[in-house]
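Morning, I've got a small favour to ask if you have a moment. It would help a lot if you went through both lines with me. Thanks so much in advance, here it is.

***
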Amino acid sequence: MREVLIADDHPLFRDALRRAVLRAVPDASLHEADSVASVQGLVDAHPDADLLLLDLHMPGARGFSTLVHIRGHYPGLPIIVVSAHEESLVMRRAIAHGASGYIPKSVSIDTIVGAVQSVLDGDVWLPDTCGSVEADLPPGELRIAARIAELTPQQFRVLSMIAEGLLNKQIAYELNVSEATVKAHMTAIMRKLGVSNRTQVALLANHLAVDQDAVRDAPAIDEVHPGR
């Protein structure tokens, strides 16, 4: 029996994905999540899953960071990104960051069924409108993605909250831990990312934003921490 994970915060679209998967794989065992925190727990609970359908804009998500983090911890798990973004470059960047497919949310159920079947067969799937699969990623983006992939799940949650502008006491409240624990996570995050303060952490996270303006505005990795 195939195990398929569906991560999307919109119930109606999650239902559409569920119906599409069951058409593609009638005996599939489905498991669902509606936030970054819950999808991390879902993947941990089903490490041998056959496929993950991942929305880029769930609560707690930051661009491609969730994709690269899950890929770093579960390199054998095929991931199809589902998103309202229909720009060809966004699709190609998703593939460059390890996705096995990209489904725009405007496509038909039949198209989703075909995409799921294709990826489960071991292929990479993109809409015909995308053109070439290859993408030239902005300088430093792959290096930053590799560093984010090394974070533990709890460190990644802290990183996401930092990028959203939350203070240490707010993060501690959300995670139900002490501020001292948050500070310890911060120290580990800065060490792994090669930076020296929380502002630089947030700036580096912008390299994985879907919005190209945010990527262009983000400083190069060597500008944030020279010599790293």
User: Anything to note?
Assistant: The domain at 3-130 is CATH 3.40.50.2300 (Rossmann fold).
